[in-house]
Structures are given as structure tokens and as C-alpha cells.
Amino acid sequence: MIIVAFNPFKHLEYARAVTDVAISDKTRGLVALDKKTGEPQGLVLLDNWLGNSVMSHVALQNPMAARYLEPEVMKYVFDTCGKAMMLGTVTSDNEKALKFDKHLGYKELFRIPSAHAEGVDLVVLQMLREDCRYFKKLSEVA
What we know:
Number of helices: 4
Low-confidence stretches: none
Mean pLDDT: 91
Radius of gyration: 15 Å
Number of strands: 7
CATH class: Alpha Beta
CATH topology: Aminopeptidase
Helix content: 25-40%
Distance between the termini: 26 Å
Number of domains: 1
Largest sheet: 7 strands, mixed
Order of helices and strands: EHEEEHEHEEH
Shape: globular
Structural class: alpha+beta
Strand order of the largest sheet: 1-2-3-4-5-7-6
Strand content: 35-45%
């Protein structure tokens, strides 16, 4: 896998096919490309940049893409950009995404009942640097 910066000229069609993110000139992110074919395997988009936080959106076609994207996104958000937290939203009926996000270190802040659809809540998640699985692994090795 090769990780490259999200480029709307190259990756916009893919991003629109796999996410519902309204891409703006402030949207940043990373894309995992297959080494052999150059085809996108997953991406993380970052938007809604605030003083202390950023909203993340993840789409994976190949689960292995997460292994390559995770450390690069975490270093970018927490170290390069100096943000204290990442926020995310997931629908309550997407159990696979909720489990994955919590595995990465996101914690559920609250649910907005039926915000997505009748009976489907919107789950708001937060990851602080100290809760990030990537940085926990680094501290265990050091």
C-alpha cells in the first residue's frame, strides 16, 4: 500500500463514491493506493477544522488499508496539526464501523436519537491523543 495526500483533482470521484462528505477547499486527507494497480483502497478525509479538533471520515474497501492509514493520519492530526482531538460520527446501525472506531481509540460521547433515520441514531465519537491506539503502541515500545 502507498499512502498519498488526498488530491481532489485525482481522488474526488472516488471520495464521492465511498463517502457522503461535502468536500470543500479546507478538506484534507490521505488515500491508500494499491502498490501494483494504483487504485484507491481506502481514505480518511478531515474537515470542519476548529481550534482544538477536526472531524474525520473513514472509508475502507480493503481492511489492510487501515494499517497504513492509521499511523499517518494520527501523526498528521495530533503532531503536525497539533489538534487535541478528532471527532467522528457513525450511524447506530453500522456496528462494524462503531467497533472499528472504538478499536482505534474513539470513545462514544453521545447519541442523537433518530438523527439519521427513524430509529437510527447518530453516534458522536471523540478520540484524544492519549486514547489513540497508535500512540499507545509507541509508548509500549519506548
